[in-house]
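S1.2 Input.
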Amino acid sequence: MTAVPCGPVRTIPDKFLYAVNEFCLSNPSNGCISIYTIDGTTGALTSAAGPVPAGADSVAMAVDPLARFAYVLNAQSEDVSMYTINSTTGSLVPTPPPPVVNTIPAGPSPFFIAVHPSGGFTYVVTSPFPGLNPPTIFVYTINATTGALTPTTPIAGGGLAITIHPSGNFAYVIANGASGPPSCGGAACTSTYMVNATTGTLTLVGSVLTSLASPVVVRPSGKFAYALSGDFPNTVVVFAIDDITGKLTLISTASTRLSPSSVAVDAFGKFAYVTNHGANNVTAYTIDATTGALTEVGTVSTGSGPMWITVERSGKFAYVLDSDPSCLLSSISIYKIDGNTGLLLPSGKACANDGIGKMLVTSGPIP
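S1.3 Output.
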């Protein structure tokens, strides 16, 4: 999976980091969210309040652009947990508060969740086993006051991940052979949808028969997109994005190290990063603003088996979810970003012992 920048670019670092745990050590039948505060000078993490309970098998999280609301996707309980974010502490308050249940159904085998840049809509993609339930994209409107989700008409054709273009005009859904729309003919594909700005509904524009191993990450300019290739090992693919239709065209590739696992692009679109699960490191690249091409500038070591990287929105710090012998379960490697070269400079580590980590998300109120 891939860290996708969410919300406006900031001039100061995000205040909070959230770790999504598939199951929680204190309650193994459910997932939970670990909360950390971010030191604005060093990027160091300090554990905040205890983990926040979520549903069974928490696999993904999305935050609205203004950092008011958070949504956690739970695969086994097939629902979305809804929260309000405390802008001072980063704590997650269930929406609505107990004893009312703060979840909403998300369909069978939900895989990924995304929030529209307007803050008005949330999307969940599902990928059920063939023959059981049709793959679906679920669309929800967001109540601007409470953050509560209301389902609208679902869209046929689900997938493994969904990304919303920074303009809010397009959505990209990656799918394996079983989960894509009929137009893909049962093959792995990546589909482009037009987003209705009023209703949030999606209209299929077209698909490329390209197998991707991570969600699409769009450069903030909206002109280029990046993902890990499912067709070629140890490769990042680069797409050009059509300004009118949003369609993707494969234009170049770049090599990674062994078994890449996630991609991130900084909020200014200058640098890209790939975690290499099999090499225990991160590869850094510069991005050509004209062509979108990636040029490798170096690697940095991580803990064992890095699986996720996120870059907070000021572009000063990056965080990698991995494992370390000194930590009981997961660990988070902390890096400062060299603003000139894009290289990652090790800046510490934090243990993430609340559960088995799945992904990282940074957030903070807009100054």
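S1.4 Remarks. The longest strand covers residues 16-24.
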